[in-house]
Amino acid sequence: MKIKITLLLSFIFLATLAKAQDSLMLRKIYDEELVNGQCYGNLHYLCKNIGQRISGSANAQKAVEWGKKLMESYGFDHVFLQEVMVPHWVRGAKEEGIIIDGKNRIPVAIAALGMSVGTPKEGITASVIEVHSLKELDTLGESVIKGKIVFFNRPFDERFIETLRAYGTAGDQRNAGPAAAAKYGAVAVIVRSLTGSLDDYPHTGATSYKPDGIKIPAAAISTIAADQLSNLLRQRKQPLIKFYFKQSCQTLPDVLSYNVVGELKGSENPNKFITVGGHLDSWDLAEGAHDDGTGVMQSVEALRILKAMGYRPKNTVRAVFFMNEENGDKGGIKYAELAAQNKETHIAAIESDLGGFTPRGFGFDGASPEMIKNINLTWKKLFEPYGSDKLVRGGGGSDIGPLKDKTPGVVLIGYLPDSQRYFDVHHSPNDVFENVNKRELELGAASIASLIYLIDQHGFNFNN
Amino acid sequence: MKIKITLLLSFIFLATLAKAQDSLMLRKIYDEELVNGQCYGNLHYLCKNIGQRISGSANAQKAVEWGKKLMESYGFDHVFLQEVMVPHWVRGAKEEGIIIDGKNRIPVAIAALGMSVGTPKEGITASVIEVHSLKELDTLGESVIKGKIVFFNRPFDERFIETLRAYGTAGDQRNAGPAAAAKYGAVAVIVRSLTGSLDDYPHTGATSYKPDGIKIPAAAISTIAADQLSNLLRQRKQPLIKFYFKQSCQTLPDVLSYNVVGELKGSENPNKFITVGGHLDSWDLAEGAHDDGTGVMQSVEALRILKAMGYRPKNTVRAVFFMNEENGDKGGIKYAELAAQNKETHIAAIESDLGGFTPRGFGFDGASPEMIKNINLTWKKLFEPYGSDKLVRGGGGSDIGPLKDKTPGVVLIGYLPDSQRYFDVHHSPNDVFENVNKRELELGAASIASLIYLIDQHGFNFNN
User: Fold this and answer.
1) Looking at the structure, do residues A182 and A278 belong to the same domain, yes or no?
2) Which residues in chain B have their CB less than 8 angstroms from residue A418's CB?
3) A163 — contact with chain B (CB < 8 Å)?
4) Are B178 and B294 in a shared domain?
């Protein structure tokens, strides 16, 4: 009996000690980042000296080369590139969009959707039919839609607290709307920008056609212009309002590009991996600051912090700059293929691709209720002082998603910053460095480094 | 025994029902605000059509009149003004600040501290002595300080997660530095702006002299200029660097001004009050958007939401636009005096004066650990879906503070938004409407309305 009690007390003592050490380590991680953080400066370079870096562009290649050098400059144990073929879509000349209200011609802000085809050189002019869902297309049918420009105008549902959910439920208009409208003979599609903010910027983003379907040109229109068009359609009889637009975007042959990978080698399990990443490519309308410059800079920063503190991980910790998340996900797919091919065991993969805003926590994809309970029992208290303690089910991300099938057992984790401002800038000319706050970015990097440390130390086996 | 069990089951049933009703009510409050919110539009008016509104100014009077009309337009049961005499400090002509490095004259961004005296008409030129604390003044003593300009240059300690704590620990330089330096014969004081961001704006704020002490001119200098000056002082021998500055600020006789108060009358306890407020006055360098336009607009919005939902409070709910928080707190003091004089029972007072950023929760001033535990047990779950669930000890605010003594038993509550961006704009020319996010502001208003509802329904008696 005495022995049992002694054992129990030893166990409690050791558990308490471990917790105190973890708590101390997190404090050191945050201190290192808040005092010596470099991700804000690195982001400045990426945004201002390279700028937009859409897949296949010369800037994307510059970003790859700079990213590799950056990782090398930090003295990571191994820095390398992974070859990947990516789509090469180009916007061409600035788009023109005009609402034609009788003799009144009102220029409005539009931008081609990514992967869209262009219009004929002379542009397209047609009557406009406003719809609010893909289902409405089915109801209206070919008799109403044929020959018209379909105008998808369902706004964000502002009642969702997380703006990502509003984006998710409005997103089918952009993703699948053009293909669906083409089936009924529409000549083109304009889509209300996927943002809750009322602004005069078009917010682009990818659309996708059916491989064997008709491809019609599709563009995003600013929310202010969308409201204007909708009001005019209501005030006048619909056929009186026409829309003219012209865009010269096209898809060129695929281009060789790269994921950029940097590693801190594991001292105990060099072939077990904890991956953290974001995507290096961006849309072409701005600097890809929040989407996803912040994610790639936080990823490399997490490793920099651990190294600067002299922390030697048990498992190999990898920062990955994925290529081509925006219009193809080719980098993420390639990374998972290579992981399987090289028989790498992936313990966890963390993705930061929801902007560099103030931290809220992490989402654990496919975690069981039991696991989430244990994560909260064990780690929530540690993150509470840093406001990054919302540890919930769900999460992951596009780039790490393919790992799920390719490296079974991996836990996919999405970094969850506050979501309120993300869609103000998302995919728009507003996504610039000036809209990133230094401390919010740094607190995110420190949160991610902290999670890597905890996973490296304890894994997800909460029973011992 | 049967009766006891039946009673117990009834009790559990009723408690569960009450919780479900509360949960439903909060959802309705957030829906009302996110769909029909008016505080962003109101803030736009306050910032753009009135603008800066320092105590005693014509704009402050405009803001009082507009604020009263706004409350009346919402049909509150009673809208009235409370007379209060306030200081009338004026900045005068734009300040001039120049670093004199031999023949090189470098103009830098400065702004007089609020309540500071002006310089002589020809300005002040003197050698600069850089210090990092008030204590250092005592060490240096009169022999070093006499005839010099004291330059307080202790930066924010970035390791604090909450920026308010960094502000708190750096603040004595501005609040008490000029009075302390005057004692040792300093001719003037310049203070590193109280912000963690490296920018080229001066961030003003009040200083206070001893009633019988010597008053020397004091100004804030931008953090970029502070670093520049500090570097030059290090590179050259100190006496070689001089500083010139000129400001023509002065304090005029006190002016009659007002708190603006609007009420929804309590159906059960009309003489028991739940007060929510912010301050209507602002510094004069910008629009007082986050400080504290957002707070006053959220306060009136909380009442608007409850009224729009047809909610009839049991206790009287009051929105208060306090006057003169920035340089005197006269409005808050007057409000508490009148509350005592009119024998009003105050259940709770909520202040929103930390910016209109994304909600984190509320701080309860002077709450016992037992009370905080109960608040968390009872309300935390309700706020979790809205991210406003950090319910902690501490909080309150300058304007509601005087109620503590004047209306014993009141619970003082500070609204806690995320703090990372506040000091980027605080007291600077950057505090403009454009730096407020609509949804963040609205979520704050809904959080405050929710808390008012819960206090109105349940009070703080968690034993029954």
Assistant:
1) no
2) 358, 387, 418
3) yes
4) no
